[in-house]
Amino acid sequence: MLARERRLRAGRDWDALFRGGFGVGGPLLSLRVLATPGRRRAGVSVGKKVGGAVTRNLVKRRIRALLLEVWDQLPQADIGVLVRAPAAAAEFADLQSALSELAGRAAGKIEGGGR
Fold it and tell me: Taking the model in full, what pTM does it have?
């Protein structure tokens, strides 16, 4: 489980992420990223298009476990992981590679200074 200080929880944090951040996306996941030097936080959002409550919670648990695995690879930023509908049927390894790839792209954008 992500520690409290590592989570995006407040609505104002999510609002700032969508107002000032940039996005990178793929077929399974999309990341919304707002550079915050010296701090790294993450949140997961799974909409009803992904499935029922049981499916959504399963996907959220998988994504949170993956975030813990790749935490040190993530850029210093506020990161919102937006789950797309095909992720419900995806294998754990597919989600893992999708998250790693998107995290790398996001880090490249932050380091390059581009949006």
Answer: 0.92
The residues near 20 (Cβ < 8 Å, ≥ 6 apart) are 34
Q: How far apart are CA 100 and CA 106, in angstroms?
A: 10
Q: pLDDT of 60-70, one tens digit each?
A: 999 999 999 99
Q: Residue 106's closest CA among 38, 51, 30, 44?
A: 30
Cβ atoms of residues 75 and 41 within 8 Å: no
Got the DSSP string for 2-15?
A: --GGGB--SHHHHH
Question: Which amino acid, residue 52?
Answer: G
Amino acid at 115: R
Q: Which run of H or E residues covers position 95? A: helix 92-112
